[in-house]
Specification:
Layout: E1 2-5, H1 6-22, H2 26-38, H3 42-61, E2 71-79, E3 82-85, H4 90-102, E4 114-115, E5 122-123, E6 131-137, E7 142-149, H5 151-154, E8 158-162, H6 168-175, E9 187-194, H7 197-207, H8 214-220, H9 225-238, E10 253-261, E11 268-275, E12 281-286, E13 314-317, H10 323-327, E14 334-343, H11 346-357, E15 370-372, H12 397-407, E16 411-414, H13 420-429, E17 432-435, H14 441-445, E18 448-455, E19 464-478, H15 485-506
Parallel strand pairs: 1-3, 2-6, 9-10, 13-14, 14-15, 15-16, 16-17
Antiparallel strand pairs: 2-7, 4-5, 7-12, 8-11, 9-11, 14-19, 17-19, 18-19
Helix pairs in contact: 1-4, 2-3, 11-12, 12-13
Length: 507
């Protein structure tokens, strides 16, 4: 009988979370490199360039790939012959591992978990509790899969109770465009079919832990219905032309995973959950011999590339920004911005709008300023700020008109698309919305030279900061005329992909 020591599991979970915070899984990294090599869309290729440069920087610097270091999920397969040595429950062991992993002084990870989700939404400070799924299986080992899932991709999960005769492919193709770019493609899609609603969601989530093997599947062909569905969805989802960061391009998904389970005759539950460019998970087995050991990817796995943005880059001084200058930018323009910018996201926006509605004076002057939607990781050592990539701009849409009309704000930076109401407000006020690349948080942080909290310090990572930046790369996503790259880019590239396929069929 195998004896699993409490401290070994705690240490293994903590080490796993540190490991996945700065190392992409090797299979994911290789698939990203192939996508970058094959990409023909200049905007998407530049985004993939940033993701890969960021990934290598994180591997070398041992800092998080993304500022959203995720909510922790742990999948356990506990052998029936395992015996435990310790005084904590299994869940308490896991959560102690999460606590130590997220509070490691050399690589502090962002605590994003909030208690009382429909009330005070107070931060638990250590990213506990984890979401834990346990299976009791034959054997004398403990198998553990640890994953950290960012809120942007989790927010795009979809579920439907289809009729038995409904097409899963049609439904998936109808919902993927509605997911926008907030899940930071390219990544994976996990599809769960059957069982009950909660089982379908779990199947989809579990499927995302599987190795990327689409190239091998294409080479050998499908052996069953699930594999045939994977092949069909992979080609058709990529045919949508959504591309990296939703900018339009050849690769939207690196793989599609499908798991199914028997279901009631009257039902066909289907779930889709995406994984983003900051895919983070690792598997380990404990057999009683001590804590798990994790082997880093070889540095040769990363391409030898530099951060490049092309020849059409415009340099922008945020300290002298005017509405006339903003009006000259066009959707799709690449900018290198320098100077002082403000930060703020959900909680800060809600507080600002409430103050405006009450007629109160705001704590910050927003006139001709740019606000960055970000919740950075705490700094370590000599850092000004920790990894500081963008959060999803779409969540700020409901606040956008009020802030643009009442504060003098002229620009916003986030990730993903803006909705119709926000685009209308941007056009009406002659403002702009820009994106930074999701999944390039450490690269972005290197452009931040100073950081100071100006207001709402009690909100922690959601406080209003003033960042002084130097050559921070952004792309104009919605210009002052209301043109959106997230609408036009996929249209263009879905058409080009269709033309390619038509030529191939003729040949």
């Amino acid at each position: 009988m195998t004896v699993i020591r409490q401290d070994d599991l705690i240490q293994s979970v903590a080490d796993a979370l540190q490991f996945i915070s700065y190392y992409h899984p090797t299979d994911f990294l290789r698939a990203m490199v192939k996508a970058w090599e094959a990409e023909e869309s200049p905007a998407a290729k530049a985004a993939l360039n940033q993701v890969l440069v960021n990934s290598r920087m994180c591997a070398l610097g041992k800092r998080p790939i993304c500022q959203d270091t995720g909510i922790v999920m742990v999948f356990l397969k506990v052998g029936m012959q395992v015996r435990w040595e310790g005084d904590l429950s299994l869940e308490d062991m896991i959560n102690e591992g999460v606590r130590r992993g997220y509070m490691h002084p050399d690589n502090v990870l962002r605590a994003s978990v909030l208690a009382d989700p429909d009330g005070s939404r107070s931060n638990t400070k250590d990213n506990t509790p984890a979401i834990i799924h346990t299976s009791i299986v034959p054997g004398d080992t403990l198998e553990v899969e640890v994953a950290a899932k960012g809120g942007g991709s989790e927010a795009k999960a979809k579920f439907a109770m289809l009729n038995p005769s409904d097409s899963v492919v049609d439904w998936v193709l109808s919902v993927v465009p509605t997911m926008g770019a907030g899940w930071c493609p390219p990544g994976l899609l996990g599809v769960g079919i059957g069982g009950t609603p909660e089982k379908a969601m779990l199947l989809a989530k579990e499927s995302l832990m599987e190795p990327i093997d689409m190239a091998e599947l294409k080479a050998r062909g499908a052996a069953d219905r699930d594999e045939a569905l994977r092949l069909e969805l992979f080609d058709k989802v990529n045919g949508l032309g959504i591309g990296a960061q939703g900018l339009g391009g050849l690769t939207t998904v690196l793989d599609v995973k499908v798991r199914s389970h028997p279901t009631h005759a009257a039902n066909k539950p289907v779930a889709v959950i995406p994984n983003c460019t900051a895919t983070r998970h690792v598997h380990f087995t404990l057999d009683g011999s001590g804590p798990a050991e994790f082997t880093p990817p070889d540095l040769s796995e990363w391409p030898d590339i530099d951060f490049e943005l092309g020849d059409e880059v415009k340099r922008v001084n945020l300290d002298t920004l005017t509405r006339d200058e903003v009006a000259s930018w066009k959707s799709g323009d690449t900018l290198l911005v320098s100077g002082r910018m403000l930060t703020g996201r959900d909680a800060a926006h809600k507080r600002l709008v409430d103050m405006i509605e009450r007629g109160e004076e705001l704590p910050v002057d927003f006139t001709n300023r740019v606000i960055y939607y970000v919740g950075p990781v705490d700094p370590v050592r000599d850092e000004v700020v920790g990894p500081a990539g963008p959060t999803t701009a779409t969540r700020m849409d409901k606040f956008t008109r009020t802030l643009l009309e009442k504060t003098g704000l002229v620009g916003m930076i986030g990730k993903a698309e803006r909705g119709a109401a926000a685009i209308e407000a941007i056009r009406d006020t002659g403002a702009v919305s820009m994106i930074a690349v999701g999944g390039a948080a450490y690269l972005v942080a290197k452009a931040i030279k100073q950081a100071e909290v100006l207001a709402f310090e009690d909100l922690g990572m959601e406080a209003i900061y003033e960042f002084t930046v130097e050559d921070m790369p952004v792309t104009v996503s919605v210009d002052a005329r209301g043109e959106s790259v997230h609408i036009e880019g996929p249209k263009i590239w879905s058409g080009r992909i269709a033309e390619k396929l038509a030529v191939q069929e003729v040949q």
